[in-house]
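I would like you to help me understand the sequence and structure tokens below and explain how sequence relates to structure.
___
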Amino acid sequence: MKIVYAFILIIFFIAPMLFAQSEKSDTSVVTKPDTVGIGGVDWFAYPYIFYSPETSLAFGGGGIVYFELYDKPEAKSSSITPSFYYTINGQYDITIIPELFLLDDNLKIWSKINYSSYFDRYYGIGNNSPEIENDQYLQDNFQAQIKLQPKLFDDRLNIGINYEIRNMTVADVKGNPFLENDSTLVGRDGGLTSGLGLAVAWDTRDNNFFPSSGGYYEAYASNFYEFLGSDFEYNKYIVDLRHYFNPISDNVIAVQSYLLMESGTPPFYDLGLLGGSKLMRGTILGRYRDKTYYTVQTEYRIPNLIWKFGLILMAGFGDVAPSVGRITISTVKPTYGFGIRFRIDELQKVEIRMDLAFGRGSNGIYFDINQAF
């Protein structure tokens, strides 16, 4: 996949100087991109313009609002992270991700809301799916996920529930042969998925925006059943393990292992999809998909290399398979690349990121707030 970005690099470098503000209880509105005090509300926003063969010319923006909900030095910062884009061929994506620490950090609420219309890619199922001429189709989506995790037994342990819902409509098959001709494809016309399950997390990170020690270890499930309103019955289990080391000065080595497993009859659009802006960057999202998806990735992070700019080097590998027992080494896909960071808040260690990554026969450029993991 060839991607050409115009003007976006310039905006990446000048946006931190144009769109950073803070609100404090003792003042109205002041400009302060570097620090945040307890009880304050800080925000940062950046615009971007990009072009890709899939989207054509697109205009978008992203940002973060972060704040502390209780007055203690060890208070964790809550955040709300919005992003959006609109393309000249009518595609759009609006995403909002709130992460809140309530009741003196005794209740964590993480959620994601997405409304979008975009060209997805479908090459069939499996880790050896062939290239096809008409790989795209247009899907309309509404998605929401929420995890409610109160602290139980230990300050580092959160146990609660996970719920996710998605309504997907195939708006235009665009000549995709699987969607046109395969009447047995589960989810061929879209549908509603609604799933509920447990969510468990063990968090020992020293900072939830830029951790340099400790780890974050989470497992959660979504069980999709008809009595919950789902059109399909299946189970999804995710294990996400992250650990952070501080080998030299303020440099950080971050390692993540991620595993998704599904059973039952999931629709094709909710199978494990290799790629994206956080996992297996550089791989076209949806190029490979199946009931099992795993990846191992690492980053070497050098903050404040020059002024407020930092550098990261990334590498990883991953693949999809019908089940854990059928994972094969011969089909594993590599990914590698580098990224630039701009630190907008030195105390809370909030950063804007741009990553350039390469996968097998593809590449991608990604913009977001904070680290990929």
Notes: The chain has a mean pLDDT of 87.
